Amino acid sequence: MAITENDDITTTEGRQALFANAKEAVTEAVQSAVEAVKANPKTAAAIAAGATAAVAGAAYGATKLSAAKATPAKSTTTAPKRRAPAKRTTTAAKSTPAKK
């Protein structure tokens, strides 16, 4: 029994029918997933790993995007001043202790 646009889900019977249909659909989906895993366990593991990586990548991207929006833009008007180069000394100019 499928719920259509004309069904009234504001009544108790309508809500029970909706719940029963949803429960049946979820049960069928779980059963087909279990059968697929039993038939191809390596493929199912690879799909699960790929899905996990996709979700992790999306979460990482979302955090970076929200962090970028939260921080103010950096000013690009002037570059910082450069430091003066270090003074070089030659080895010949250094004094060496006299040997006895």
Description:
With 100 residues, the chain is an all-alpha fold. Helix content is 58%, strand content 0%. It has 2 helices and no strands. The protein has helices spanning 12-39, 41-70. Helix 1 (12-39) crosses helix 2. The longest helix is centred in the middle third of the chain and has 30 residues, at 41-70.
Q: What are the main properties of this structure?
A:
100 residues, mainly alpha, 2 helices, elongated
What's this entry about, in short?
By secondary structure, this protein is mainly alpha-helical. Helix content is 58%, strand content 0%. Helix 1 packs across helix 2 (41-70).
Quote the average pLDDT: 79
- Tally of DSSP helical segments: 2
Residue fraction in strands: under 5%
What is the structural class?
mainly alpha
What's the β-strand tally?
Answer: 0
Percent helix, as a range, is: 55-70%
What is the CA–CA distance across the termini? 109 Å
Spell out the helices and strands N to C: HH
Largest sheet: none
Rg estimate, integer Å? 34 Å
Low-confidence stretches: none
Backbone shape? elongated
How is this fold's topology laid out?
Blueprint: H1 12-39, H2 41-70
Helix pairs in contact: 1-2
